[in-house]
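Supplementary Methods. Inverse-folding protocol.

Structures were first reduced to a discrete structure-token string of length 109. This string, shown here, constituted the complete conditioning input.
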């Protein structure tokens, strides 16, 4: 009954994406999960924040293998890519919209 409601409402991809986030430590392994956090899924791209540049670089190298496995294990997720972000300078960007220009930094002399 629940499965038919999920299909009728078109929630299968959202539920599959939620499973990915919930099962991330099991998917990548505890050691990798200690250094990574799923920050979101936008436009079919799974975004992962890494706690060091080394981890981000290594996971970018393994991206194709991980994406293939993810597509096999979560076929209804509609994930088509993975992005691994290294820590960096604080971002002034908040929200989905961006105004071009330097933003508040341009007033600092």
């Amino acid at each position: 009954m629940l499965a038919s409601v999920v299909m009728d409402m078109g929630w299968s991809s959202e539920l599959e994406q939620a499973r990915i986030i919930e099962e991330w430590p099991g998917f990548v392994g505890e050691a990798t999960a200690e250094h990574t956090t799923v920050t979101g899924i936008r436009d079919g791209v799974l975004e992962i924040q890494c706690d060091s540049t080394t981890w981000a670089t290594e996971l970018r190298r393994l991206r194709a293998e991980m994406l293939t496995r993810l597509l096999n294990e979560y076929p209804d997720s509609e994930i088509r890519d993975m992005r691994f972000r290294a820590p960096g300078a604080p971002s002034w960007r908040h929200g989905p919209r961006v105004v071009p220009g330097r933003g508040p930094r341009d007033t600092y002399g």
